[in-house]
Amino acid sequence: MSIGKRRPKAPRAQLRSLPSASAKQSRLARQRARLVALSVVATAVVACAAIVHGSGPPFSFRLGERPDREIRVNVKEFKVRNQTKTSNERQAVVDKVPPSMVNDPAPIKDLADRLDDLTVTIAKSGRFEDVPQTLRGAWKLKPETYLDIKAATDTPQRRDNLHVQLQKAFLPLLENGVLGPEALPRNEESSSMLAIHNVGQPWSDSRLVPRDRVVPERIVKPGGPAQHDFVSAFTMPRTGEVLFQLVADRIDSRPTLTHEPEVTARLRNEARARVNEHFDTFTKGDVLVEQGQAIGEEQLILLRMEHEAAQSALSLGDRARRAVGILGLVAALFLLTGYYVFWHEPRIAGDLRHITTVCGLVVLCLVVVRLLANQTWNAEVVPVAIAAMILAIAYSANFALMATFGLSLLTCMTLGSGISYFLVVMGGTAAGALALNEVRTRTKLIKVGATAALGYLLLTWAAGLWEHQSIDLIRSDGLWRAGWGLMAGFFLGGSLPFLENAFGIVTGISLLELGDITHPLLQELVRRAPGTHNHSITVGTIAEAAAERIGANALLVRIGAYFHDIGKMLKPHYFVENQVGSTSRHANLAPAMSTLIIIGHVKDGVDLGRQHHLPEPIIDLIEQHHGTTLVEYFFHEANRRSGANPDGSTVHENAFRYPGPKPQTREAGILMMADSVESASRTLSEPTPSRIEGLVSDLIDKRLRDGQFDECGLTLREIAEIRECLIKSLIGIYHGRVKYPEQRTA
Fold it and tell me: What kind and span of H or E run contains 79?
């Protein structure tokens, strides 16, 4: 007997092992999911720390800023190129390089040969009239000039000496040349010296000649150096003066010098390159900017040079310590945010997709901040504002506020800014995020951007006045930040559809578009199942009022109610609200089969929703609005038939329950209650307020005892408020009317 009692225990132990193995697998799956989530967060922490660290300590000074302390050199020494001194010395060297000129002495040599021929002709003539008239006219020869030349050539010896002296007199003109009126460009007209070389000679054989010795006006000047050189070549000064006067009238018409711009430019570039750059040396302790002094362009260059020198002087150990410190600070911020998410944002904490998306958004925000850090437009507030507004739309304003705090701190660490900049970014961004309570219109995001812009503007002025910054800098920063805050609203307005797809969210704008009666699914529901459509509209009305009562998403509940029974359109006549006449389609079906048809409308509705690309929150409401409730009518019918049949099998309650899941959100719980009480209220023959109140209380209490609201987050107080609101709404629907005398009872 004892053996017989022990035998059934084996299968019980075996039955217990199955849930144990399943629980173990479930536990392992949860552990793997946690490890993956932790690895994603750890990767984001390392990435953010790397972005914040960058190439070293950030350069935090800006043009026009007034530091509140004296800024001194903190490195041993650094050198800064003295651009002014280098440029001045190079320009002085360049100015010393004369223009390069090439001399073609042929015109002057021709003039000398013609003058020599004139002296020979005069020497051979007997009198002035014997000189040919054309020669006299060409040289404008006068009798007294003729006599002076005749006296210098009256003997063969004098004639030969005059020929030699004439060649010697022309030698300076042949070597130096004659400058034409437009031989030099305007930028070279101030040059006092010229580098001249003859045709066929290299430029290296050039000789420096004063410009006065080649300008025709200077050459023919009476008593000038050119005349002196010419006359001194003759033993008889009178003869030299006479011949020079003949030459002076013809020199300006015979220029011989040509400018060489390419050679001149090359020589000057070579001279410029030979001058080394000058550097000013700054040593540790030297004052770069006085306290309260506005940072100008020169000071900004010095500060940047000192910053670069300090970065290059950092050792590997210094960089490693700084990296570890930044990693610790970033990890602490992520830990603080993670603690908040774990306790207050279960939708994020329990979904790897949401965790990955949020971490990716934070990393992307810091990447954009780093890219904009070197600009002067104050555009680094844009990624912070956009990220915070996206989180406010996707999750909640409280979470966006928490994220704004962390992003503002990370941005200040990246830019090396102080507490005033943190207050500006944090305050302006928080103003925009907190204004995003619900997005139902296109202008809502623009208004939010304007709110953030106003916050940036006011806080920039307050922080600037507090730090005694210049009014010009405050005004510039305030206008830039306000403009970027407004642009963030416009950007979000244009990218909202893409954000909804990326984050799996649905905004009020999308919900209002879905609730349009022209939606294909609603049109089909009206055509195929008008009773179900009427039921859905009524459920949406009473559920929306209940959601508003407890502060849930009323618009989501109403639009979800419109679609919650769309699966019934595939088999509409199996549902009582669409049946015409007294004959039911379930009369000839087994209760189990009828239950499958009834339950199937949930799965059919989910499939239709996915086919028509309904948002996930709407599909969740379709899937969860019955939870795991019991199809009571057919369950009791199955029990009745089983009791009447001695050979009937035991009826299992699980076979008559919806597959679930149970409502996971407050909105799904509200929809479940509104759907059940609206359907049941239609069965009341006399829907008096007391009967409606009793019906609603019984149905809600039954689902409460059944554990249907265990996972949706509704409190008992909220359930009580929903009950009262539903009772009030149904009483309003079934309110009594005055019976007119001509009316007869149906």
Answer: strand 77-81
Q: In this structure, what DSSP letter does residue 677 have?
A: H
Detail the DSSP E strand segments found in 425-493. Answer: none
What does the DSSP assignment read for 282-329? EETT-EEE-TT----HHHHHHHHHHHHHHHHT--HHHHHHHHHHHHHH
For the beta carbon of residue 2, count every other beta carbon within 10 angstroms: 5
DSSP state of 657: B
Cα–Cα distance between 86 and 79 in angstroms, integer? 14
- Report the distance separating Cα 543 and Cα 536, nearest Å: 10
The CA distance from 610 to 601, in Å, is 14
Q: How far apart are CA 703 and CA 624, in angstroms?
A: 13
Would you mind telling me the total number of residues written for the chain in this entry? 746
Strand partners, 210: 193
pLDDT, tens digit (0-9, with 9 covering 90-100), for 508-542: 888 888 888 889 999 999 999 999 999 999 999 99
Q: Which whole-number Å values give the CA distances from 423 to 368, 457, 458, 487, 562, in the listed order?
A: 20, 12, 11, 20, 45
Pick from 706, 633, 708: which is nearest to 664 by CA? 708
- C-alpha separations of 146 from 112, 240, 244, 529 in Å: 17, 13, 14, 135
Is residue 364 within 8 Å of residue 382, measured between CB atoms? no
Most confident of 41-50, 345-354, 577-586: 41-50
349/371 Cα distance (integer angstroms): 30
Q: What is the mean pLDDT of the chain?
A: 87
Q: Are strands 279-283 and 77-81 parallel, antiparallel or unpaired?
A: antiparallel
Higher-confidence residue: 229 or 743? 229
Q: What is the pLDDT of residues 617-630, one digit of tens each?
A: 999 999 999 999 99
How far apart (Å, rounded) are the C-alpha atoms in residues 170 and 149?
17
Q: In this prediction, what percent of the chain has a pLDDT beyond 90?
A: 45
